[in-house]
Design goal:
The protein has 113 residues and is an alpha/beta fold. It has a domain of 79 residues: Rossmann fold (3-Layer(aba) Sandwich), CATH 3.40.50. It has 3 helices and 5 strands; from the N terminus they run αβαββββα. The strands form 2 sheets. The chain has a 3-stranded parallel β-sheet with strand order 2-1-5, with helices on both faces. Helix 1 crosses helix 2. It starts with 10 loop residues before the first helix and ends with a helix.
């Protein structure tokens, strides 16, 4: 049986929303040292779109995180597979991820209480 994909948002709708987000981000972080971090590399397309429209300077880096290993189901344990290459202490950080559930688990693992 062939699965059918359903279009949820058009390319134009996504582009408009990204531009709205970058206006908000640019205004909020205008006088701050912003760092954009992709978790994991699957977020690079979204980050690229954000960066393209930002009107403020921002550093960019990626951190690798995995919970699947070679399996199709998450182990529930987050393993850091790539460390940040830039320092983020004292800077404002925005995390972008390819999936909400992974982001929640990764954020807990990356940002200790």
């Amino acid at each position: 049986m062939t699965e059918r994909l359903i279009l949820l948002y058009s390319r134009d709708e996504i582009a408009r929303r990204v531009q709205e987000l970058t206006r908000i981000i640019s205004a909020h972080y205008a006088d701050k040292a912003l760092v954009l971090i992709g978790i994991p590399q699957g977020a690079f397309v979204f980050l690229t779109d954000l960066i393209r429209h930002l009107t403020i300077p921002a550093a960019v880096d990626f951190i690798g995180a995995a919970s699947y290993g070679y399996h199709s189901k998450s182990s529930g344990q987050i393993q850091i597979t790539k460390e940040l290459q830039i320092h983020i202490r004292g800077r404002d950080v925005l995390l972008a991820s390819e999936g909400v559930l992974l982001a929640g688990s990764c954020t807990i693992a990356l940002v200790p209480e």
